[in-house]
Amino acid sequence: MSRRSKFLGSYNSFKPENIFRKRIRKVLKILIIFFIVYQIFTTFIVASFTVGTSAMEPGILKGQHLLSAPIVTGASINFLKIKIPGFKEPERGELVLIRPGNASNVSWYDFVLDPVVRFFTLQKKTILPDKDSSWNNQLAVKRIIGVPGDSIKMVNYRFLIKEKKSNSFNSEKDLIHNKYSLIIPENISGMETSFPFSGNMQVINLDKDQYFLANDNRGAYYDSRLYGAVSGNNILGSVFLTYLPGFSFK
Predict the structure, then answer these.
(1) 168 DSSP assignment
(2) Long-range CB contacts (< 8 A, 24+ apart) of 22-31?
(3) Which CATH class is domain 18-249?
(4) What's the whole-model pTM score?
(5) Domain spans of the chain?
(6) pLDDT per residue over 125-164, tens digit each?
(7) Would you call 170 exposed, middle or buried from its count of C-beta atoms within 10 A (0-12, 13-18, 19+)?
(8) Is residue 228 within 8 Å of residue 152, measured between CB atoms?
């Protein structure tokens, strides 16, 4: 099929554009733009998360949804290993969304590809735990118990905290003004306090940019008692709202 060029006075071959390909390109362009906007929004402003365990009960239930604000405590760009400062430093008692453990050891291309996988699976799949066969890289919500300069210990599943300029330990309830409830396991008769998971912990001193994180359900040990203090780069946002079921500002 041909048509006469209006300006050149010659004939050029002409093929009608494949409508299906045109539509595919249009859809892909829309998806790419939407993905970029989504990533910018969730990395710097507000991110959603579904709680997968009972570690934060009774305050946050398994299966409950929450919103966190990276803009408050600072957004972490993991594959570049940088953190953009937020409005304030993470505070003792604050609920935060984190990536604990050895997240810093994950390759940059996994951090780049992981948001793509999460986006197209509606946050149900991630490639990071599969990389190391480790749960250390999964997102989680925790409560900050200790901040840089603190000394932390545990007695009967309750934390005692010595602030940087203090000479004595005080209970977490005395120092943390946020209201929260705990689930305390029953003590096992005859268990030595030095045993792991006995509800007791020796003193841990927090250095610069180290935070001690804990579960409200003290029977769940997947917190800083297991993987140690985390850096500020692994704190991804301040949790400010839980919903479905319920609706509560934190």
Answers:
(1) S
(2) none
(3) mainly beta
(4) 0.78
(5) 18-249
(6) 766 654 443 444 478 999 999 999 999 999 999 999 999 9
(7) middle
(8) no
